């Protein structure tokens, strides 16, 4: 994993503040809630209220980003649980508190004014440890899913700079790990992120230029397909199909897909999941036609992608 940016030196001091922190935060303004994050006594409650009501504040992301010490406080909340990530005894209370901080980071990642500065400050790197854990307990899963939500917010808007940043910081292996160990929603968001990367020309080249990388991605997709027979998910299946379809845009990858495409793609149990979505069914049929046609036409004339 890339090195974390080293710019966190000290917690904003509150020792000289003349006014004590508010203790009842139920009816205070968003500015007061953000200020309450600087106090240990009120931080947990402020995190909860800001996270719970973040959709009500249009400028919350801008206030969080520009207010003194707030990003430091959120990152400190995140880093404080790093030492517990390899242990199964992480509590739901600790996980929920960090997830509230992550939800506020997602707010910053989603806002057009703060998205690029958020990325250039390399804030997403602080989330990667949560994507790297293999423990499947609920507290770890909550952290995994909420962290994926932050990355998902970055890729929702088509921005080459975001994709280049994620490729440079090796997000794909982390997504593949989440596709393997995560629950249904984590698998879905991780697959969506990979799909958005594949939709970018440089992202597609990155995923297909090295055979081991291509095989790792197709193996993750196939494994999820196998597990879908036990827990069907139309939404996840859509993203899996779209990943395959984007991979088929690479001539080199398309040759491999003709041999690797899971037999289950021809299984009515999966196609039945798509009957309610004509667009995805059309993509599914297009994928089968493209892969089988290209496999037949290019067997004797392989190209590089």
Protein model, in words:
The protein is mostly helical. The protein folds into 2 domains: 1-158, Leucine-rich Repeat Variant; 199-305, Leucine-rich Repeat Variant (Alpha Horseshoe). It contains 17 helices and no strands. The longest helix is centred in the last third of the chain and has 21 residues, at 278-298. The two termini are 27 Å apart. Residues 5-23 and 300-305 have low confidence and may be disordered.
Helix content, binned percent: 55-70%
CATH class of the largest domain: Mainly Alpha
- Average pLDDT level: 86
- The total count of strands amounts to 0
Write the layout of secondary structure elements.
Layout: H1 30-36, H2 40-52, H3 60-66, H4 70-79, H5 92-110, H6 115-120, H7 128-132, H8 138-156, H9 160-168, H10 171-181, H11 184-198, H12 201-209, H13 211-228, H14 234-247, H15 251-260, H16 268-271, H17 278-298
């Amino acid at each position: 994993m890339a090195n974390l940016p080293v710019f966190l030196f000290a917690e904003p001091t509150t020792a000289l503040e003349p006014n004590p922190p508010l203790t009842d935060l139920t009816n205070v303004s968003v500015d007061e809630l953000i200020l309450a994050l600087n106090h240990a006594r009120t931080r947990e409650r402020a995190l909860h209220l800001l996270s719970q009501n973040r959709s009500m504040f249009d400028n919350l992301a801008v206030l969080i980003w520009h207010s003194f010490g707030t990003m430091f406080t959120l990152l400190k909340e995140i880093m404080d649980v790093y030492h517990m990530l390899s242990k199964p005894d992480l509590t739901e209370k600790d996980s929920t508190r960090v997830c509230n901080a992550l939800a506020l980071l997602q707010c910053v990642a989603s806002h057009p004014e703060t998205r690029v500065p958020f990325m250039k400050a390399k804030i997403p790197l602080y989330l990667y440890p949560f994507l790297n854990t293999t423990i499947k307990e609920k507290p770890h899963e909550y952290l995994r899913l909420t962290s994926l939500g932050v990355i998902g917010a970055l890729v929702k808007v088509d921005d080459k700079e975001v994709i280049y940043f994620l490729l440079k910081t090796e997000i794909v292996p982390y997504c593949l790990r989440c596709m393997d160990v995560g629950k249904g929603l984590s698998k879905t968001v991780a697959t969506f992120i990979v799909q958005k990367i594949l939709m970018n020309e440089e992202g597609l080249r990155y995923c297909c230029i090295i055979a081991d990388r291509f095989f790792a991605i197709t193996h993750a997709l196939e494994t999820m397909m196998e597990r879908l027979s036990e827990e069907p998910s139309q939404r996840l299946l859509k993203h899996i199909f779209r990943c395959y379809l984007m991979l088929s845009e690479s001539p080199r990858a398309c040759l491999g897909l003709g041999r690797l495409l899971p037999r289950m793609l021809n299984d009515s149990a999966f196609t039945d999941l798509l009957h309610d979505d004509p667009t995805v069914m059309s993509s599914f049929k297009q994928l089968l036609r493209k892969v089988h046609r290209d496999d037949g036409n290019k067997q004797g004339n392989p190209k590089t992608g």
